[in-house]
Amino acid sequence: MTAAPSHAAQDPSGFESRHFGIDDIFYSRTDRRGIILAANAVFQRVSVYDWADLIGAPHNVIRHPDMPRGVFHLMWSMLADGKPFCGYIKNKAEDGSHYWVLAVACPSEEGFVSVRIKPGSQMFRQAQQMYIDLCHRERNEGLSPEASSAAFLTAVQMAGHGDYDSFMTQALTEETRQRDIALQRPVDWRLRSILSIKEGVKQIEDHAGDVVRIFKQTNQIPYNMRLQAGRLEGTDGPISVISNNHRQMTQSLADAVATFSEKSLLGNDYLLQAEFLHGVSRVQDDLLQHFAVEPVIEGQDKPHEMALLSGQQSDFICKAHKAVVEVSDRVCAFSKICNDVRRLKAGLEMTRVMCKIERSRIAERVDGLDEIVQQLGKAQTDLDDLLSKMDGAVQQILEAAERLTQSRQKAA
Predict the structure, then answer these.
(1) Is the dihedral of CA 34, 37, 39, 44 positive or negative?
(2) Residue 266 in contact with residue 327, Cβ under 8 Å?
(3) Predicted TM-score (pTM) of this structure
(4) Residue 156: pLDDT over 90
(5) How many other C-beta atoms can be found within 10 angstroms of the C-beta atom of residue 302?
(6) DSSP label at 94?
(7) Measured by CB atoms within 10 angstroms of the end CB, which terminus of the chain is less buried, N or C?
């Protein structure tokens, strides 16, 4: 897609605001029509509007012409569905300057609540280029807001993100990390625990696929054994019996292997939800701390605004915890299935030992039977290695989940 120059490059008044720092965090609340009902002092300072011109005004009073209409269409669609939205937004202040934010907008009983921080990660630069391209298409192709939104979601996928939920979750994680570094704050251990669970789940899913592949490869072994038996001893010899036993075992394993593959899907949607909601609760906690020391704004019920934010933050923390517990429960169930696979692996080992005994009884060289013994031995070794790695990943997940659960219990 060919990039077009941004509006800001053509607009001499499009200088960046001097009023917005990395330590700033601001807030606004609107009704369901997008009319501003409340805000904090940082929003007023950065937007350079007088309070009288902000309260009661539509929130799009600060909309910048560089913003694609498709992004706002996506935002309002998600909010209308009762879902939080997180995205990069370029705003225009009253003095003509612009400022970029990572905005987290959430539905509330009285309308919508939005918290914004200053972005600066690689994700931000990626989004800026997407917006330039999208604005170019809106102007030159006459895209409707709906078509522009669909084009934006396609661009998100082409940039390597599964969907917009994945994109906005990664953006929120990266921006809060960058903010912690800039403010010289310690690493957020709760986020680190969630990401540790995420890493463990990815390892398990990768290894589970390998387990299924190994079992599929062994499905051909009974057929090959029957061929060898027919050539060496007819249809009633020991190798034939071993072959039949192995065939029956692999048939009985079919359902277990299918279950293994299915259960390896340990809840990435839940993990994504936990990561995102934790990020939202963090920026809301930051806002509450800043809001608490800001001066009271005339005509605004500060305790009401803080109570609304605090209640929403507690709700998000609770939902994030429930998502972690769901993943933890799935991992525990999966661990039991791993034990079943170990039992199945023992059956492979028994087949290998019996084949090896029969091979030693036969005086002549039998390359086909030797190869079968080697295949069974390799399958056992590979399974041992994979199950050991999955054990480590399961332990990693359960330990991280336990840390989060204990912290939640202490906070309660």
Answers:
(1) positive
(2) yes
(3) 0.81
(4) yes
(5) 15
(6) T
(7) C
